[in-house]
Design brief:
Length: about 400
């Protein structure tokens, strides 16, 4: 990503290639194999982040660039760094802390103009010598980036973002720019497909969670009906009446606190069901009195929200099951402000060991045998897709998972 204003000078593919820029006449085996590797990553239904990593690596390979980065567009038209290869950690942090939001830039011009934008020499190009480009120019010189090309990622009418390629030794050949442009078109389709697969995966997980909760509730209600039927068959009408009264009081208490604070019907129903299931396991799951939420932010769908909340609650209940009664509890807090929605799930379990804090978010990792190890990975993926943040803290005792989701 390049953070600088762009003037009236820009080279586009519609202008004749200068001397030394040869036109591409066909795809080489190297380029075709790279496209096949991108297609294979999508076909294997890899995560969006994994597909983006493959695209960045293959784009760097086919264009013989020193480094590559992919910037995806957010709903408000801002960019964020989604993948990179060959960039130093310092440069990645520089990009992540300088999201493009206003004004013109190389990436912005490519995305808006739907054409590759080329800088052959960062030392002499008039766009790089503008005052607003000073910070980037110094960084580029330190990193050794001599030439840069920014390629739009477009599928139909959807603009996904841009692919930026960095070179250290020489200007771009016309053939290389055309390869980058064509590769970008194919990559945009792959990104679109990977996004759809990611979304469908989260929706399936959310549905499975809801079905599991409903199945457990059905089992619980069946048990209660059997108890009630047994009391009535024995003629114990007084005990049956008291049992019904207790159930009604419990039902009202759990519903009232949730419905007053959580006005989203699906989330409220999910919380009530999870509370009942936790109670069956001897765990007190309660909603923090400070909770208050009217609706989900536009940055996340209900399927993703269900997946996040279900996985965090189930992990919290699992963490405290089997502990002394005083620690068999977990708390959920849902709050909303004009700028964000916050989801916090805290347990009083053993906490998270420092050496496993990063590993728990990886697919397939689990501290318990027989577990798939995808729950927290799905949470992390859903939060990232919604441009949110996930913070994990050890408490005294237990652990806290706090998620911040932007309102737009």
């Amino acid at each position: 990503m390049i953070e600088f204003g762009i003037g009236t000078v820009q080279r586009e593919l519609t202008t004749p290639a200068p001397a030394g820029r040869r036109k591409v006449t066909g795809w080489t085996r190297r380029e075709i194999e790279s496209l096949m590797r991108v297609g294979r990553a999508v076909a294997l239904q890899g995560k969006l982040s994994e597909v983006l990593d493959v695209i960045a690596a293959e784009a760097r390979y086919v264009t013989r660039a020193k480094a590559a980065s992919i910037l995806l567009l957010e709903s408000r038209g801002r960019f964020h760094l989604a993948a990179s290869t060959g960039l130093s950690r310092d440069y990645e942090r520089f990009l992540q802390s300088h999201f493009i939001s206003n004004g013109l830039s190389l990436s912005r011009a490519a995305a808006d103009g739907l054409k590759p934008i080329v800088v052959d020499d960062v030392l002499t190009d008039p766009r790089v010598n503008r005052p607003e480009a000073r910070d980037w120019k110094l960084f580029a010189m330190r990193e050794g980036y001599h030439a840069v090309v920014s390629v739009p990622l477009v599928t139909g009418s959807e603009r996904s973002g841009v692919l930026n390629l960095y070179r250290a030794d020489r200007a771009w050949l016309g053939s290389e720019i055309e390869v980058a442009a064509t590769f970008g078109q194919c990559a945009a389709g792959a990104i679109h497909s990977a996004k759809l697969i990611d979304s469908q995966r989260r929706q399936v997980d959310a549905l499975e969670r809801l079905v599991a909760v409903l199945r457990d509730q059905t089992h619980e209600h069946a048990n209660r009906l059997q108890v009630l039927s047994g009391l009535l068959s024995l003629g114990e009408t007084r005990e049956a009446s008291e049992f019904v009264s207790q159930l009604m009081a419990l039902h009202h208490d759990s519903h009232a606190s949730v419905i007053d604070a959580v006005q989203h019907p699906i989330l409220a129903g999910l919380l009530v069901a999870q509370m009942n299931i936790a109670q069956q396991r001897g765990v007190e799951l309660y909603l923090d009195p400070k909770s208050e939420i009217e609706k989900l932010p536009s940055s996340i769908g209900i399927a993703e929200a269900v997946s996040i909340l279900s996985n965090l609650i189930e992990n919290a209940v699992e963490a405290v099951s089997g502990l002394p009664p005083a620690r068999r509890r977990a708390m959920v807090r849902l709050t909303q402000s004009p700028t964000e929605v916050t989801i916090t799930v805290r347990d009083w379990g053993p906490g998270i060991r420092r050496e496993t804090k990063d590993a728990i978010l990886r697919r397939g990792w689990s501290s318990k045998s027989g577990h798939s190890g995808i729950g927290l990975a799905l949470v992390s993926e859903a939060v990232t897709a919604a441009r949110g943040t996930l913070t994990i803290r050890n408490m005294r005792p237990g652990a806290s998972f706090c998620i911040h989701l932007p309102s737009r």
